[in-house]
Amino acid sequence: FKSVTKEQADVFSPSPLAKRRATARRAGSTFCYDFVGLFAREVTKEGGDAFVADELVLSGDGLATQARDPGQNDCGMVAWRCAASTKEYPEGREFVVVANDVTYQSGSFGVKEDAFYAKVSQYARSQGLPRIYVACNSGARIGLADELKPKFRVAWVDEKNPQAGYHYLYLTAADYQALPQGSVQGKLVGERFVLDAVVGEKDGIGVENLRGSGTIAGETSRAYADAFTLSYVTGRSVGIGAYLNRLTRRVIQMKQGPIILTGYQALNKLLGREVYTSQDQLGGPQVMHPNGVSHLTVESDVEGVAEIMRWLSFVPRVKGAPPALLPCADPIDRPVEFVPTKAPYDPRHMLAGATTDGRFLPGFLDVGSFKEYLSGWGKSVVVGRGRLGGAPVGVVAVETRLSEQRVPADPANPDSTEVIMPQAGQVWFPDSAYKTATAIRDFSGENLPTIIFANWRGFSGGTRDMYGEVLKFGAMIVDALVECSQPVFVYVPPHGELRGGAWVVVDPTINAAKMEMYADVDSRGGILEPPGICEIKFRTADRVKAMHRLDSKLKAMDQNADENAEAIAKREEALSPVYLGVAHEFADLHDRAGRMKAKGVIRDVLSWPRSRAYLAKRLKRRLAEDALRARFRGLSEDAVSTKLRALAGSAYDDDTAFVTWSAGTAARVAV
Predict the structure, then answer these.
(1) Is the Cβ–Cβ distance between 579 and 546 less than 8 Å?
(2) Which residues, 6+ apart, have CB-to-CB distance to 470 below 8 Å?
(3) Distance CA 179, CA 513 (A)
(4) Is 610 helix (H, G, I), strand (E, B) or coil?
(5) CB 88: neighbour CB atoms within 10 A?
(6) I want to staple 248 with a disulfide (CB 3.0 to 4.6 A). Which of 128, 142, 229, 469 is the partner?
(7) pLDDT tens figures, 409-446
(8) Rounded distance between C-alpha atoms, residue 650 and residue 446, angstroms
């Protein structure tokens, strides 16, 4: 072998960045600085012509941008202020990315990391900018006072027999005096300084990190209310990292990114046996997607960044801004060709369309715009985002088919088994009610109008589901609707029905300023279904009376009822099934859309093929009107309505005319 000089060896040594990239890969992630390139790639791939990322660093009590080479960070947290040209905002939109550096002390959260994260989050929400958290960490940093490890002594009970135990730990007087003041606590006993507590010379080795974790947990919760927040879990996220993911509320999880509170090895030690074999058993996508923590799962970081940018495409530039309207290639006035049936069907086809017999039948939303979220959780409800006439909307639809909730067996309990609970269609269960409330709250936080395709027969009120808090989660739907600041359309679709408590929690009077309800001409609404109400209000005696009033043979027999008693009884029995159907039909007539409109509980009756055109125009009207209403401060809703009606004149009662008027000079000058 030939000898190699140090200079020659350096040529073949991996660069510091290569080593850090390898470290990140071993953690199942991508080096944090390389995410900038992934964002730039995705922006240009989707037609954007510019992407800029300025790194944020601490500067005094705040943040400043700084141009520096990747990997120069002295902290396990890094951040950028990004600007991108997108289809929604060709002139550019900004967002903030904050990421763990898993190559720096395993991405753990110390005092400095906590302070930096909090500053970045405050920076983003103070400007209403979307804030993306890229998570790959090992939780709160742990440590010991390394400077004391070679210095502490043990006061043994018996110096020659350590197994007999010890009294205390101590330092020699000389070692104690050599330490900085305050680094240990205790008392001098002769030549020994008996230790009561170790403080340490360095900050960031214990409870101070937990305090910092509490600080950033609170900051993340506040950020959800003040800005769009999203977490992308690119690798393991532990302890406070897991809580930050949940507190952002919107989570995309990579398949190699478990979200856990404690590592599986620590749990095995706690249990005293080898129960768990991987972190995925505790918080992998197969756990976090079905329980609703993860909204989406992806196979790679490339796909993860693509989904981040797709989600951002539905979100306004800044908090409180109106949604971005795109030119719509899918004609607003086209008919909705996929028609819901009386038989169970996939509600996604109603929204996005479906191919039948080789022909594509477009659904309600703009073709190609629908994206489902939270698909693994609460499967009796479907939620997602899409576009209607170019306007971004959040949608809630109802699964009409039988679905299943799976509860896995617990490896820590040998007696446990997997539980599969069937869930009927058109019914709210605890998980799907909570999912509905969560989706509505998220839509509102993103300033998205919401369309609810209401097709519920009610809530599941059995013992198991009442114990499972279905009442609590149903009430949360009302809470979420009360807080909505954008238009909410509730539409009972064809062959759909809305009954009892299910109607109550989406009734438009919950938030009359923002909500409107519509019913399809083929829909139904009422307290009970016809068979149920007939058991109470159209009983057998009432049906027999109807037979004797309407049936010619019974009328004739009634002329001599005593002699024809047996024949009358047989005739009543023969007619009973027929008149049961008649009773159901009579009750059903009370549930029709015509009665809903006559009683003023819905705004209008719609025909499904034309519903897209109607609601798209209505949505543009509501968005235009809300933009004008925002300029009238201090006036009640009724007062603003009166003023707008006077200003717009006849255009006020015509959606298309109002949109045209509101965009004109006359409206701007008048308002």
Answers:
(1) yes
(2) 428, 429, 430, 433, 459, 460, 461
(3) 67
(4) helix
(5) 18
(6) 229
(7) 988 888 889 999 999 999 999 999 999 999 999 999 99
(8) 33
pTM of the complete model beyond 0.70: yes
Tokens standing for residue 295: 């909204």
Phi-psi region of 126 (alpha: psi -120 to 50; beta: other; left: phi over 0): alpha
Instruction: Report the alpha-carbon distance of residue 263 to residue 518 in Å, rounded.
Output: 50
Which helix (H) or strand (E) segment is 63 a member of? strand 62-66
Q: Which two tokens stand for residue 304?
A: 């993860």
Return all residues near 41 (Cβ < 8 A) that are at least 6 apart: 302, 305
Gap between the Cα atoms of 278 and 265, Å rounded: 8
Q: 């043994």: which residue's tokens?
A: 156
Six token digits for residue 549: 């009033």
- H runs (alpha helix) in 14-153: 16-26, 34-45, 111-126
Q: Where are the beta strands (DSSP E) in 522-635?
A: 524-526, 604-606
Cα torsion angle, 525, 527, 529, 530, sign: negative
Structure tokens at 223: 């950020």
Contact 363, 349 (CB under 8 A): yes
Taking alpha carbons only, the member of 249, 220, 206, 33 closest to residue 118 is 220
Tokens of 617: 């125009």
Site of tokens 């101590």: 170
CB atoms within 10 A of CB 169: 17
Residue 22 — left, alpha, or beta (φ > 0 → left; ψ -120 to 50 → alpha)? alpha
- The helix (H) or strand (E) run that includes residue 171 is strand 166-172
3-state secondary structure string, 397-454? Answer: EECCCCEEEEECCCCCCCCCCCEEEEECCCEECHHHHHHHHHHHHHHHHCCCCEEEEC
Q: How far apart are the first and last CA of the chain?
A: 86
Measured between alpha carbons, how far is 417 from 419 in angstroms, rounded to an integer?
Answer: 6
- Coil, helix or strand for 32? coil
Q: How far is Cα 419 from Cα 409, in angstroms, rounded to an integer?
A: 7
Find where tokens 């049906």 sit. 543
Q: Are 379 and 403 in contact (CB under 8 A)?
A: yes
Residue 64 CA to residue 51 CA, distance in Å, equals 19
Please state, in angstroms and rounded to a whole number, the distance separating the CA atoms of residues 620 and 93: 23
Task: Give the tens place of pLDDT for each residue, 84-116.
Answer: 999 999 999 999 999 999 999 999 999 999 999
Within 13 A of 116's CA, how many CA atoms are on the CB side? 26
- Check if the beta carbon of residue 52 is closer than 8 Å to that of residue 83: yes
Supply 10's token pair: 């350096």
User: Tens digit of pLDDT for each residue in 221-241?
Assistant: 999 999 999 999 999 999 999
Tell me the β-bridge partners of 154: 169
C-alpha torsion angle, residues 26, 30, 32, 34 (rounded to 10): 140
H/E stretch holding 215 reads helix 207-226
CA trace torsion 317, 322, 324, 329 (10° rounding): 170
* Both tokens assigned to 498: 């809305």
Asked if residues 76 and 100 have their Cβ atoms less than 8 Å apart, the reply is: yes
